[in-house]
Amino acid sequence: MINLAENVELDVKRKSDLGYMLTDGKEEVLLHFKQSLTEHEIGDKVNVFIYSDKQNRKTATELTPLATLNKAGFVKVVGVMNNMGVFVNINTPKDVLVSKDYLPYNESFWPQEGDSLLVFLKTKKDNINAKPLSRFDIIGLHKDVTYVEGEKVEGFVARIQDNGVGIVTKDMMYVSVPQIMLRGTYRLGESVTVTITKELEEEYYGMLNQQKEEMIDSDKELILEYIKKHNGRMKLTAKTEASIIERELKISRKAFKRAYGGLYKDRIIDFNDDETFLVK
Questions:
Q1: Which of 10, 30, 73, 170 is the most exposed place for a label (fewest CB within 10 A)?
Q2: Residue 225 sits in the same domain as residue 259
Q3: pTM
Q4: pLDDT per position as a tens digit, 91-106
């Protein structure tokens, strides 16, 4: 039996107006001329990947898929359909669906077009779907790759949780980034550069923050912009609760106090018990 999402070797049985009819001796599938990498003769053996066309018919291609049932691969997001999921290109004429069941509940965290996901393929009835790898799936790949502390590594967001995010590097290694080491919010599949901070037994810890000096400068600018938008004064001070600072400025209280202290030291701002204001 010829199965979807599998690489198989088939015989060329005959040639039609559209392409080559291939067979395993029991079943036939079409290898369209556009999906053939070379010309074939009757009796030739051809290695092909089986996908389903727009009419959900089994169809063959000599192109190599980016992922299979048993081999993980990075695929690009090519379309987003609200309440349904995202479509990815696996290097076949028909894109495949990553169901919303495998995506964050909040659609604002869904991948956008051009983002990348690490997936396995799955079959459901007459269709091929894709499923992103979980943290344990990625760790289970057991790639022979080593990073050192301080190394910057390119990757993609693979997991989003309240306590942080998980990154899958282009080497298919897993890096956990705790919330305190994040800068802003991220979406699944987003391209990032993560800095390795610690090696664990089966994964790494990392951070997506800027260097501290760069962070202070950008936080200073953020605070100044906020003050200027409020006519040179703001109700935030070094004593303001963390939840209010995070709501208003989208940075931690620790980062706020660090930049706030720098602005005060430079005599750019001053404050009283109730508010902060620009120095004339």
A1: 170
A2: yes
A3: 0.73
A4: 999 999 999 999 999 9
